[in-house]
Amino acid sequence: MYSNGIKKIAAVHDLSCYGRVSLTAAIPILSHMGFKVCPLPTAILSSHTQLPHFSFLDLTNEMKKIIEEWRKLELKFDSIYTGYLGSPEQIQIVSQFINDFREKECLIVIDPVLGDNGHLYAGYNEKMIPLMRDLIKSADVITPNLTELFYLMGRPFKNENTDDELKNYLHELSDKGPDTVIATSVPVQGNPHKTSTYAYSREGQRYWKVTCPYIPAHYPGTGDAFTSVITGSIMQGDSLPIALDRAVQFVLQAIRATFGYNYNNMEGILLEKMLHNLDMPIQINSYELI
Ligand code: PXL
Predict the structure, then answer these.
(1) Can you point out the beta strands (E) in 59-147?
(2) pLDDT digits (tens, 9 = 90+) for 149-188
(3) CATH code of domain 8-289
(4) Residue ranges around ligand 1 (CB below 6 Å)
(5) What is the pTM of this model?
């Protein structure tokens, strides 16, 4: 009679033990937003792969065992949210996991982690690209950065793109399956001090853009924080443009809070200083319909 009301999210990401990426970003954010996160770890690394050296324990076989036990327990999830996958085989496992565990109201969010700044991440296998193109077909929401957007479309990376070009890209990817395509880290032409996020939802047939100041520092894991907030926000019933505003503002405020310190940016953003922002209503009106 009394449902506890807590929704469960299966979070398929690696556990990087240093530098705030993947599970160490997704768990605190989604827990703070009131969701129960069930991690399905893809790999354990000493740190993210942007440091000069790191250890890497591939959990592909363990993932199969965890999924099998979850199946026996008849677990049901309100969302499946995937990020960094450690091997081509893992993409196939995750695809099967989504097929088997997907229920009618289950939100499938796929962050197609492949690379950044026009390149694949270190250690990423080229074979992952066509498999990732296939995986996104099962998603409701995908959140590629500009680099990943081009990999998914199978076109050469281009840093400068007009609004109309970006709208076409989002539409093209949505036609492959996902209702909602959100492109992050898009430079604003002629203004190096700004960056934009673009989004399209096939259901509403509308395109949105949120532009915010660009801070000249790179922190690993901001994409994971962004997609975690998007996931939590949609799960709590926010509209797409409000989810965009919330995620952009969260990441921007977190970068600003971190940037002022003399700090090794490879440690990622200072998430702990920012989690309380998730409780607040949207403060700044920033989304536009384009
Ligand atoms: O934030 C993306 C990410 C996730 N997981 C690992 C990474 C990175 C980016 O560098 O290295 C292991």
Answers:
(1) 79-82, 107-110, 115-116, 119-120, 141-142
(2) 999 999 999 999 999 999 999 999 999 999 999 999 999 9
(3) 3.40.1190.20
(4) 14, 16, 21-22, 45, 48-50, 84, 113, 121, 220-221, 223-224
(5) 0.96
